[in-house]
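Attaching the record inline, Q. Sequence:
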Amino acid sequence: RETARTDANTARLARGAATEGNPSVELSDYLRVVRKNVILLLALMLVGVGVGALIATVQQPSYSAQTQVFVSTQGGGSSAELVQGNSFTLSRVKTYASLATSQDVLERVIADLGLTLDSQTLAESVAASPVLDTTIIEINAVDEDPALAARIADAVAASLATTVAEIESPGEGGSPVQLTTVERATVPQTPVSPRPMLNVALGALLGLALGIAIALLREVLDTRIRDERGLKLVTELPVVGSMTFDPKAKQRPLVVHSDPLSPRSEAYRTLRTNLQFVEVDGRSRTFVVTSSTPSEGKSSTAANLALALADAGETVILIDADLRKPKVAEYMNIDGSVGLTDVLIGRAELVDAVQMWGESSLYVLPSGQIPPNPSELLGSKSMQALITQLETEFDWVLFDAPPLLPVTDAAVLSRNTAGAIMVVASGKATRHQLDVALGMLENVDAPVAGVVLTMLPAKAANAYGAYGAYGEGYALSKTKPKAKAKARG
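Structure, as predicted:
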């Protein structure tokens, strides 16, 4: 037993390590994330469009003017001298272009035009670059006043020519380099910024990128189990049933009875069929229906499964072993004042506490009074003796037990049965919570018959996955197993 427990712990740790790893991501996963967050993506795109339009509205228009300067050298008329002069000019063009934004050049421009800004500020609106494979320098000036932008561009060209002449003058002789303005700036008519369409497009793209980043981050941080794929990251247990979300579940918890032709009723019948083929190692079909956390649908699953089994001609007893927050009596609409606790402490006989439900072969044992020591009662010898007695009288014994994480009742009870049926609600329990809950069952050597996925989105493609997966098994269940003839207390 100790060796089996050690192996179980090792397997659980390995499963936990695999859960923390990054599963393979496919294109369909990204498309699923996009579909799930489409409203968020559209909202952020609209915000981006709005911000881009707002910036374009409040931003002051700017105009750009260009001047072109030709760089030449003075020299002899021979071919060699011309080639040498041209090579000299090409090598200096980049240097002259960088001088266009120098302090000396711009301070002369400020003085000539009577500007009120400094050279450093003016340098931010002036740019000069050589035209590729030519000796032409293009000077660009940007300003909110289109006429001033043209005057600045021409003034920079003139100031640059003067500065280069001063630098290149060898002593008393003239400068061999000459900068000539070949195309003066014209007053621009169209602003270069803002560009409303470009701003709106960039805003939409940035909003979309932000939305995708948030959606992916939410997907990574959200470890809640939503479908069978998320379940496979935790355990390889078979999915024996899948139930879609029913907004009217609280008003009609016994859907197999109230709406027997509904898809959810068919899902419970599929669960019944799958459990009929579960190996129980020679044990009677006694199962504990539990979950990791509260509000995952374990009580309604146990009740509807019991109804489905009884409809198939099986003799079934449904026992409310949730001695903390019992629900079976409420769901089955029976008196729950006398029940399991009264039988266990010897205050009532089993025959007096068990109630027949309807005209089917379904019997119900409610919880009775809530005791101060539920775990001790469920693990007592009286409980073991009661299970043995019930297994001789009924084809199926189903216990509705509390969730595993808050209390240990279900784990204590499961070790004396054929196993547990784990109910996992879509979007409720996390992978870590389910892993810990399964570990609690493994620690007491309680087998798990399978997992029932509940509250699956009705429109999700995987909501009906279990129907198809177990279609063949459902066809086999049309031949009802012969009910055992049992004497009932």
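The radius of gyration is 41 Å. The longest strand covers residues 63-73.

More tomorrow.
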